[in-house]
Specification:
Structural class: mainly alpha
Number of strands: 0
Largest sheet: none
Number of helices: 1
Length: about 110
């Protein structure tokens, strides 16, 4: 015997279709929000790393500026010392020439 299957007709209204789509969109929105939260967390971590690197760059820049200032001071001191010693050498040369002229003058006189 063949059993007869009863076929029932299911009617779906437009409201039911819209409700199903809204529920599906809600699930997708929830997944997107979770994904965005993860991305925001990663971005916050990257921002912290960038801030630490910026602070390190500032410290290094300040240290280099200090070293450059010290080096500049040393160069200025050496320049002044060279100018001073050149002046002393000139004075010594003039004194030697003066003494030599005095000796020549006294010999000729």
């Amino acid at each position: 015997m063949v059993e007869e299957q009863e076929i029932k007709s299911v009617t779906i209204s437009i409201n039911d279709l819209i409700y199903g789509q809204v529920k599906e969109l809600g699930k997708r929105m929830d997944r997107l929000e979770v994904h965005l939260d993860k991305i925001e967390t990663r971005m916050d971590k990257q921002d912290e790393k960038i801030e630490k690197l910026d602070a390190k760059i500032d410290r290094t820049r300040n240290e280099l500026n200090g070293r450059i200032d010290k080096l500049s001071d040393k160069i200025d001191a050496m320049h002044n010392e060279i100018k001073s010693s050149t002046g002393h050498i000139s004075i010594a040369n003039i004194s030697t020439v003066g003494i030599a002229l005095a000796v020549i003058y006294s010999v000729l006189k």
